[in-house]
Design a protein that fits this description.
The structure is a single chain. This protein has 191 residues and is an all-beta fold. The protein is built from no helices and 14 strands.
Length: 191
């Protein structure tokens, strides 16, 4: 007689909204937790489990696993080097006298890779009494949308500074990789 396995992946729980409990940054440990029972709702112990997580064609195995007891199992995966994005969790459960089963929890957690700003510069580089300047910066944020603002303030001399003023409007860069964005601002003696 062969039995059937049932699994309920309870962690991570899918709270992936900004600030949610299942939003992580690269390098954080993420614990995957599953309850395994048979078709009679009896806890299954002594099973062999294989865990992995996947996002957009990238798969990572979780090998730091343990059996907690009473049908509960877990594995802690370190997300160092993982790409950003929304992840599904998979657990394959094997046990003698049972049909092997693979369980999946879609959209279980999100790895948020912070945006990176690089290669900022201004053109022209020489200051004159009146000039139009263009400010450039490259943006990388491959897992979501980066909203970028440019601000300025005037040096009033003697260690004093004027109020911060936004140049133009913010710019959104969605799933960008080293994408250049720019703002143009005209300065004269009054600004």
């Amino acid at each position: 007689i062969i039995g059937d396995l049932r699994g309920n992946i309870t962690e991570p729980g899918g709270n992936v909204t900004p600030g949610g409990s299942n939003v992580y940054t690269p390098g954080q440990n993420i614990t995957i937790r599953i309850k395994v029972e048979d078709e009679c709702n009896t806890s299954v112990t002594g099973a062999t489990l294989y865990y992995w997580v996947a996002h957009d064609g990238n798969e990572y195995n979780c090998t730091s696993k343990q059996e907690e007891g009473n049908g509960w199992y877990n594995c802690t995966w370190n997300s160092t080097g993982a790409v950003g994005g929304l992840y599904d969790v998979f657990v394959n459960v094997l046990k003698a006298n049972y049909n092997n089963e693979t369980f999946r929890r879609n959209s279980s957690f999100f790895i948020d890779v912070p945006a990176n700003l690089s290669n900022g510069y201004v053109s022209p580089t020489k200051e004159r009494l009146e000039e139009t300047f263009t400010f450039y910066v490259n943006v990388t944020d491959e897992d979501d949308t980066a909203r970028v603002w440019l601000w300025r303030r005037k040096d009033l001399g003697g260690g004093s500074w004027g109020a911060w003023q936004q140049i133009g409007t913010y710019q959104d860069c969605t799933n960008c990789s080293n994408t250049q964005i720019s703002w143009t601002e005209h300065f004269d003696l009054s600004t």
